[in-house]
Write a structure and sequence with these properties.
The chain is 42% helix and 14% strand. By secondary structure, the chain is of the alpha/beta class. It has a 7-stranded mixed sheet with strand order 1-9-8-5-4-2-3, sandwiched between helices. Strands 7-6-10 form a 3-stranded antiparallel sheet, with no helix packed on it. The longest helix is centred in the C-terminal third of the chain and has 32 residues. The protein is globular. Bound molecules: pyridoxal-5'-phosphate. Pyridoxal-5'-phosphate (PLP) binds next to α3 and α4.
Length: 374
């Protein structure tokens, strides 16, 4: 039997929210303020309230949301920024882009998030070697689960590291009652269409409680503007969030709590059905995941992926190659074997369809197909 299932079903979501989304788009077409229109400010206010931070700043992508906070702090050549090797390229790309050096750290084998013990060891080692200045850490909230910020913040405090939370996958996740996007000095999220809150194109946001950082970020994303847009006080970028995306996201944010609940129900159903067959996600006490991706591990990945494919079920691999083995970072001279937990995860991990509009029959079918092929 074949059941064609979408990995992320944006059509089904559009059908469910069609009236709200069309009227949001129409509102923008009526006033035509496509850049910095009123919906942007409304969306930023709603975002800040949802995350529980003072400032939410819309920007053009999750990548720019990572880049802009680093630019506010004057990150430069000779600075070391610690981050996990098991993440999307953007997390480390922005470090290199600014001329600083990504220093990779291995992950916890259960949560896939930065291992705080290894972080401390790596910071110590970097200090001892004396070539780079330990400067910042970018923990990543992998698949939707916030990283271990209590332990990471302790290391950051000890060594004076700036903390930038990569919350690109975790919008909606929580840890100790705090929402993802509310950890560290500043956080970045992504509204790439497949993320938990997705735009109809690229988008992202910066979250912070730091007034000064927020003001600088708003200047940087608008070509380093001062009091006036043709008064340029620093080097910036064109990093704004379009009004259309803000309007669409504002409409989607209203449905987000209910969608998040449905994602979690789907994840629970998967875990219940699959926990004896593959390694299912473990959510530490006091945490909840945004369930952006539902990833499992098996030693028999190829057979399972083949089995699912022939049943019409799409899968994805996040991530088939850790960053320290990517050609883009070959200059950093890492070797296979340097980060065994990430390397092993990249050989065994895969993700199942995950979105709020999965039908129970679809989840059951997927579970049966995984069981039949492991
Ligand atoms: C998606 C993603 C990004 C980048 O976001 P874009 O909006 O695609 O630029 C950064 N980090 C992680 C962990 C991501 O998953």
């Amino acid at each position: 039997m074949i059941m064609p299932i979408a990995f992320v079903d944006l059509k089904r979501q559009f059908q469910a929210l069609e009236n709200e989304i069309r009227s949001a788009i129409d509102g923008v077409l009526d006033h035509t303020q496509f850049i910095m229109g009123p919906e942007l400010g409304q969306f930023e206010e709603a975002l800040a309230e949802y995350v529980g931070v003072k400032h939410a700043i819309g920007c053009s992508s999750g990548t720019d949301a990572l880049l802009i906070p680093l630019m506010t702090q004057g990150l430069k050549s000779g600075d070391a920024v610690f981050t996990s090797t098991f993440t999307f390229i953007a997390t480390a790309e922005v470090i290199s882009f600014l001329g600083a050096t990504p220093v990779f750290v291995d992950i916890d084998p259960v949560t896939f998030n930065l291992d705080p013990v290894l972080l401390k060891e790596t910071v110590e080692k970097t200090k001892r070697e004396g070539k780079l200045t330990p400067w910042a850490v970018i923990p990543v909230d992998m698949f939707g689960l916030p990283a271990d910020y209590e332990a990471i913040q302790n290391v950051a405090d000890e060594y004076g590291l700036f903390v930038l939370e990569d919350a690109a996958q975790s919008f909606g996740g929580t840890r100790g009652g705090r929402k993802a996007g509310n950890f560290g000095n500043v956080a970045a999220t992504s509204f790439f269409p497949a993320k938990s809150l997705g735009a109809y194109g690229d988008g992202g946001a910066v979250f912070t409680n730091d007034d000064d950082l927020a003001a600088q970020a708003r200047s940087i994303l608008f070509h380093g503007k001062g009091d006036h847009k043709y008064e340029n006080v620093r080097i910036g970028i064109n990093g704004r969030l379009d009004t259309l995306h803000a309007a669409i996201l504002l409409a989607k944010l209203a449905a987000f709590p209910d969608e998040l609940k449905k994602r979690r129900e789907a994840a629970d159903k998967y875990t219940e059905g699959l926990k004896d067959y593959v390694a299912t996600p473990a959510i530490p006490d006091g945490c909840s995941s945004a369930c952006t991706y539902y990833s499992v591990m098996t030693g028999n990945r190829e057979a399972v992926l083949d089995g699912l494919k022939s049943a019409g079920i799409p899968t994805a691999i996040y991530y088939p190659k850790p960053l320290h083995l990517q050609k883009a970072f070959s200059r950093l001279d890492y070797q296979a074997g340097d980060f065994p937990v990430s390397e092993s995860a990249s050989e065994r991990i895969f993700s199942l369809p995950m979105h709020p509009y999965l039908y129970d029959e679809e989840i059951d079918f997927i579970i049966e197909q995984v069981k039949a092929s492991v």
